[in-house]
Amino acid sequence: MRMVQRGFVIWLLAGLGGCDQNTISSHEIRQRMDASRDVVKVFGKTLKSHLQQAMQQGGPVAAIEVCHEKAPEIARQLSQKTGWDIHRTSLKPRRQPPDEWERQVLEEFEKRKAAGEPVKKLEFHQIVEKDGKPVFRYMKAIETQPVCLVCHGKNVAPVVAEKIRQLYPNDQATGFDVGDIRGAFSVIQPLDKPFTQVSVSLEDNS
Asked: Rounded to two decimals, what is the model's pTM?
């Protein structure tokens, strides 16, 4: 597993155009990693809370509607609080398709999973150039849970499938099994300003 991951790092670094991990200190890299993990955790917990409430009150169709509205709202709130780009993506997207860097990371996650690495341990960070500027990028895999199959599984109920078609005409995010990589959280931190620790809690987080 380590050989696979190391090879991936070397392969990606080859295309960075001189931007590498030496542009910031190892201490700052750890800080940015920890901050990325924190913001991803808040994103996941907040969205899960809203979805659980919707499921209890209105079932899967209500949960889809809430996810459609709340997921981008949570991402916007966290992005505004931190000044970073925070979102979710997948090789089989429902909303936001991956960019090329994200696609490569997601494909490597699949290889690492196939090699026996637990999905909940899959994460990756790197300094790359985006739009002509160096950025710190982080991704954390999202594991498919049993409850996810209601909207993302292989046997989605017709009423649920119809709501998905209404809200996401180009949806690809079905056909998953428990334990699959559903997608990943993605965080982009600009490096043009010094790193400062920020609070990533949300008022409606529970």
From this structure: 0.85
